[in-house]
């Protein structure tokens, strides 16, 4: 509660300093709407962070059962006594989710009042226009989506208690970053979708970092109170274990927040002169506070982790956590004020004047030539953040393993480099205007990139460097056990992969993938994950029992044959033109006609789909693993 009060005070002072709440000459919604909106935004942002943080703790950091945390064996009936820390985290998520719902309603109504210049009222006309705002305008649709997510998460926090249900609820809470980012200031920059991606990364980092610190405050009494003596994990105090686990997450989140914050600031400020505006000064205050908070957090974690052996030391450490939360609440207050302050660079999108801009949001790229396969770039910060995080985590694992084949590391890094290239360069840029480029992009994500990543043996590296937990909580290895069935059946994965490609390209889903940024991103993530499952099941199945090599070879051969057949059919031109209203209306003045481009997509299927599968099939036939490597990956 103190954090909410402090954040409210900070946002009021920041809004007054920036002039965001000054009376307008025209379309003024009244003093109540001007002042209430930044306060409601602050409460909303804090509430969603607390809910996400508490759910994240319940999913990956805290043991659900008391006796498992103490190392006591027993059957399920003997473990029905929930751990108090887990109970506090889930109960707080349920309670604060109610605040989240009401604050989302307030933000939705006040945002409309501020944009329309109408005071908040209970009139029928205001209600009718509010409905139109939420159903037909982008800003209204975004906040209506946030409200729907808040209501759904609120309901689920009272009902969901199984691990899988809690994971789904946590993911839904974190997904709030997407609609909020769609209407952020940086999202209105010249490169709209790059701005959205950077904001999504920023918000995800904030939710994990700030929400995690808030969750630490919530579980303090259960970790350092009178029951602290029983709260152990493998002989180590549970408070120390939880802090070590969160410290790793907080470190990743801090760098995501800092890096994406710099990108967002560059988009909003334009040049160095922007720093001298009131908006720029608030940016500098926020950046300085973030750096200071990161330094304090790092020093505190290093000090606290080594000293959490007694109740008194633990209480001192947790008091410092409360101080961190107060600073974070102040930063969120400044952020809410920034959201109501006009940046130096105008953030209104220019009206689309060409068919390509209307359809894709970007000008038609220049004619595709061989050199432009390497020179055309448009950064997608979501995938850049994903790849850099995956690289850092893998390298830390390699360092911990001490002895690790360099070929595996090279394969993993190459796969991530190809992932960045495919999502940020010509395959994606031209994939919006050429079907041949789009098929190259999607098949690279579904076949080529997963092949390179799986050859890096990340599951083997995890099994060697990440210890299995004994307190009943679920970490990386435990969640791999949950998804292990998806990594165990090559034939099923091959069928799902082939069917998914057919459904995307030969149903109305393809138009949705082309038209909507979020559907495009979800499709990319889906095919990357599905391809990873397939490659793992073929190269190194993880199901506790060996899968015959002949069965894996047969599965790889069938999928390779299906891709080859698809390439031949495309090249023959016997299939109808896909999404003609999209590609024909692009008004492209260069390159092959739409029908010929679809035939050329056969080459894309051969390069990005069939060729990697042919390489895999050849390797499976020729390579015979030594006896000690022939067993499936161990996750025990």
What does this structure look like?
With 636 residues, this protein is an all-alpha fold. 72% of the residues lie in helices and 1% in strands. It contains 26 helices and two strands. It has helices at 2-18, 31-61, 66-69, 84-116, 124-136, 138-159, 163-174, 177-182, 192-224, 238-269, 278-305, 311-339, 355-360, 372-375, 381-401, 406-424, 426-431, 435-455, 458-465, 476-483, 490-505, 509-515, 517-539, 549-572, 580-583, 594-622; strands at 232-233, 236-237. A two-stranded antiparallel sheet has the order 1-2. A hairpin with a 2-residue loop joins strand 1 and strand 2. Helix 15 packs antiparallel against helix 16 (406-424). The two termini are 43 Å apart.
Short description:
The chain has about 625 residues and is an all-alpha fold.
List the helices and strands and how they pair.
Elements: H1 2-18, H2 31-61, H3 66-69, H4 84-116, H5 124-136, H6 138-159, H7 163-174, H8 177-182, H9 192-224, E1 232-233, E2 236-237, H10 238-269, H11 278-305, H12 311-339, H13 355-360, H14 372-375, H15 381-401, H16 406-424, H17 426-431, H18 435-455, H19 458-465, H20 476-483, H21 490-505, H22 509-515, H23 517-539, H24 549-572, H25 580-583, H26 594-622
Antiparallel strand pairs: 1-2
Domain Copper resistance protein D: 242-338
Membrane topology: Multi-pass membrane protein
Subcellular location: Cell membrane
What key phrases describe this protein's structure?
single chain; 636 residues; mainly alpha; two-stranded antiparallel ribbon; 72% helix; globular; disordered C terminus
């Amino acid at each position: 509660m103190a954090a909410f009060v402090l954040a409210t005070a900070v946002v009021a002072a920041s809004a007054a300093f920036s002039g965001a709440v000054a009376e307008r000459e025209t379309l003024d919604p009244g003093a109540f709407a001007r002042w209430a909106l930044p306060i409601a935004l602050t409460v909303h942002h804090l509430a969603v962070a607390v809910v996400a943080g508490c759910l994240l703790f319940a999913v990956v950091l805290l043991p659900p059962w008391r006796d498992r945390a103490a190392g006591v064996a027993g059957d399920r009936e003997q473990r029905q006594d929930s751990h108090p820390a887990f109970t506090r985290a889930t109960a707080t998520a349920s309670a604060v989710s109610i605040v989240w719902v009401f604050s989302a309603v307030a933000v939705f109504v006040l945002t409309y009042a501020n944009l329309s210049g109408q005071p908040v009222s209970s009139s029928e006309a205001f209600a009718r226009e509010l409905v139109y705002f939420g159903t037909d305008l982008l800003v209204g649709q975004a906040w209506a989506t946030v409200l729907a997510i808040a209501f759904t998460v609120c309901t689920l926090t009272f009902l969901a208690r199984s691990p899988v249900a809690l994971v789904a609820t946590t993911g839904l809470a974190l997904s709030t970053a997407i609609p909020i980012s769609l209407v952020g200031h940086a999202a209105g920059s010249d490169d709209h979708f790059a701005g959205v991606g950077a904001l999504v990364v920023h918000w995800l980092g904030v939710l994990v970092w700030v929400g995690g610190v808030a969750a630490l405050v919530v579980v303090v009494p259960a970790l350092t109170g009178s029951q602290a003596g029983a709260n152990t994990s493998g002989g180590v105090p549970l408070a120390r274990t939880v802090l070590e686990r969160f410290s790793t997450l907080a470190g990743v989140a801090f760098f995501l927040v800092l890096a994406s914050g710099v990108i967002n600031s560059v988009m909003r400020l334009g040049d160095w002169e922007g720093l001298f505006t009131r908006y720029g000064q608030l940016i500098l205050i926020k950046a300085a506070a973030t750096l200071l908070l990161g330094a304090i957090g790092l020093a505190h974690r290093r000090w606290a982790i080594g000293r959490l052996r007694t109740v008194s030391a633990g209480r001192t450490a947790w008091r410092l956590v409360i101080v961190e939360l107060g600073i974070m609440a102040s930063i969120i207050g400044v952020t809410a004020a920034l959201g109501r302050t006009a940046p130096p660079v105008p953030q209104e999108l220019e009206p689309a004047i060409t068919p390509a801009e209307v359809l894709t949001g970007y000008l038609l790229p220049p004619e595709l030539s061989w050199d432009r396969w390497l020179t055309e770039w448009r950064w997608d910060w979501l995938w850049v953040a994903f790849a850099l995080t995956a690289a850092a985590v893998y390298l830390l694992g390699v360092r911990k393993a001490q002895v690790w084949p360099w070929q595996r590391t090279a394969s993993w890094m190459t796969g991530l480099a190809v992932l960045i290239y495919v999502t940020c360069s010509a395959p994606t840029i031209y994939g919006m205007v050429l079907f041949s480029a789009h098929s190259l992009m999607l098949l690279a994500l579904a076949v080529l990139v997963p092949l390179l990543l799986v050859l890096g043996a990340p599951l083997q590296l995890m099994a060697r460097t990440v210890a299995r937990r004994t307190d009943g909580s679920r970490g990386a290895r435990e969640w791999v056990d949950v998804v292990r069935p998806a990594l165990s059946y090559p034939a099923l994965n091959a069928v799902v992969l082939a069917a998914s490609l057919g459904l995307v390209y030969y149903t109305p889903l393809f138009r949705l993938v082309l038209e909507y940024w979020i559907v495009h991103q979800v499709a990319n993530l889906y095919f990357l994950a599905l391809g990873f499952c397939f490659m793992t099941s073929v190269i190194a199945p993880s199901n506790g029992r060996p899968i015959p090599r002949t069965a894996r070879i047969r599965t790889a051969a069938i999928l390779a044959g299906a891709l080859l057949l698809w390439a031949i059919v495309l090249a023959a031109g016997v299939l109808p033109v896909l999404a003609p209203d999209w590609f024909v209306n692009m008004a492209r003045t260069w390159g092959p006609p739409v029908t010929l481009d679809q035939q050329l997509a056969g080459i894309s299927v051969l390069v990005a789909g069939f060729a990697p599968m042919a390489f895999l099939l050849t390797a499976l036939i020729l390579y015979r693993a030594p006896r000690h490597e022939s067993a499936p990956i161990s996750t025990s």
